[in-house]
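thought: user wants a sequence for this fold. calling inverse folding tool.
action: design(structure=
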């Protein structure tokens, strides 16, 4: 078996502020200055009104589990040591949804609509991932 490494996120110039903030354990979102829509994932124009007048704002870091799955079985991979783990879509209080992990709890205790808050999981010096834990 060959040595493997976990993949890191692919970035671009307009997502870089998000990753830079995450490195400092801050969760930020884009917000359209024209129509007020919160935007995630990072984009160049507002998906609601097509304005490019977009700012970065700090997120509340709070939300609820929208849906999730518990990974208990995986082909030999770099994730073997993480099992069981929870992959979830969290709907933030700002209305956007994030694909993430739920941490710091028994995976069997996770349920839809469970209140969660952001936590941060450092992958390496360049990437820290926003994850969520029970609130
Ligand atoms: Zn807009």
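)
observation: tool returned 135 residues.
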């Amino acid at each position: 078996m060959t040595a493997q490494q976990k993949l890191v996120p692919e970035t671009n110039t307009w997502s870089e502020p998000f990753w830079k903030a995450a490195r400092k354990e801050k969760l930020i979102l884009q917000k359209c200055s024209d129509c007020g829509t919160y935007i995630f994932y990072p984009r160049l124009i507002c998906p609601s009104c097509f304005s490019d007048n977009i700012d970065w704002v700090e997120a509340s870091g709070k939300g609820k589990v929208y849906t999730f799955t518990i990974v208990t079985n995986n082909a030999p991979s770099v994730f073997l040591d993480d099992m069981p783990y929870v992959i979830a879509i969290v709907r933030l209080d700002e209305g956007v949804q994030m694909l993430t992990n739920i941490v710091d709890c028994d995976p069997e205790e996770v349920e839809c609509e469970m209140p969660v808050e952001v936590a941060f999981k450092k992958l390496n010096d360049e990437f820290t991932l926003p994850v969520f834990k029970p609130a």
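thought: summarizing for user.
answer: Here is the designed sequence. The chain has one helix and eight strands.
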